Amino acid sequence: MKKSIIALTLAAAAVFSASANAKLIQHTDQIAEVQFTGSSYELGKHVGDVAGDQVLRSIDRFDEVLGIMLKDLSVDKITKTFAENKVYTHLAAKSPDAGAYIKGLSESLNMSPNRLLAVGMADEAILESQRNGGIGFLEEVPQNAVAHDPNAPTHCTSFAYGDGSGKAWAHTNYDYMAINYENLLVINHTDIDGKTKIVQTWAGLLPYGGVTKGNQVLLGNTMADEGTARELAGGEIIETDSVPSFHLAWDIYNAESTQGVVDSFAKFDKYTAFYSYTVVDPNEQVLTVENTYSDGLNVTRRAFKILCQGNSLNIQYAV
Fold first, then answer.
1. Reported pTM
2. What's the whole-number mean pLDDT along residues 13-33?
3. Would you say residue 304 lies in a domain?
4. What number of helices (H) and strands (E) belong to the chain?
5. H or E element in which residue 97 lies
6. Which residue segment(s) compose the domain that 166 sits in?
7. Which residue(s) pair with 198 in the sheet?
8. Is 228 a member of any domain?
C-alpha cells in the first residue's frame, strides 16, 4: 500500500513538470519512472528499450505465481488461448492507441503481443484460476482454515478527496497477487499533441492508477465479484464479441475530463473483465464508474469526498 501511494505522489507531481524526455529515472529500488515524448507506438518501443529487463523479470515472476495458483496454469497457456481467440487483433481494432503501445513493446522485446497481454490482462488469468478451483483474487481466509476458499469475499480499498477549489488527494492499496512489490514503472508520457498522462503500471503492462491528460486522478480496482457473477451464470471469460479489458486499463488515461472517462467505459457493452475507477477532479465532483456483468455501466457522482471500499463498491460519502 505504501509503495503505491509513493508512486501516485510521483505521478501527480510529474503532471506539472516540464515536457518529458526519453529517459528512465529510478526513484527507489522498487519504483522507476519512464519519461517519454512521442507516439504510443514509440512509447512501447522505448519502454522495452530502457526497462525491458524489468518487464521480462516480471513476466517470469507472474508465470511462477500462476503455477502456484492453479497447477499447469502458465503464461504459455494463456498466450495460446489469447492467440486462438485473436485477443491482440481485437484490442488493436477496438483500441488503436492501446494496440500501438503493445505493438511497440512487443517489437522491442521480440515477444508476441498476446504474451504481453497475458500479463497486462492479468484479471482474466486469475478468473480462469478461480473458476477451476485455484486461487482467485486476494481472499479472506479464516484464521483456522486449512485451505483458501474461492468463494471468500475480496477487498481493495481506495480513498479520494477533492476540495472543489483545485486540490485533490487520492490513496489506494495495491497488493495485487502479492507480486507487485518490485518493477513498478510510472509512465510519464507526453503525446505528439503535447498532452501528458501519467500511468502507474506493474512492469509497464498492468495499469492500476495515475493521472489523465485532463489532470484527473484515477484509482483502479478490480471488480472480482462481477467476474464471479459471470462465472456462476455460465459466461465465458474470453469471447469473440468481448472487448479485451486492456482497453479500459489503458485508454481511460487519454480522457481530458471526467466525462471522458465515462465515455471510455461506455464505448463498448461487453468486456473480458470488470473494473471500478474512482475519478478525482479537484474542481468537480468525485466520480466512480464501473462496468458490471448484470447491470451494465454504473456511474456515481458525489460532492468532493468519497470512501470507496471493496470490489463490490461499498461506498460511504461525507461532504
1. 0.83
2. 66
3. yes
4. 10, 13
5. helix 96-109
6. 53-139+153-182+216-317
7. 188, 211
8. yes
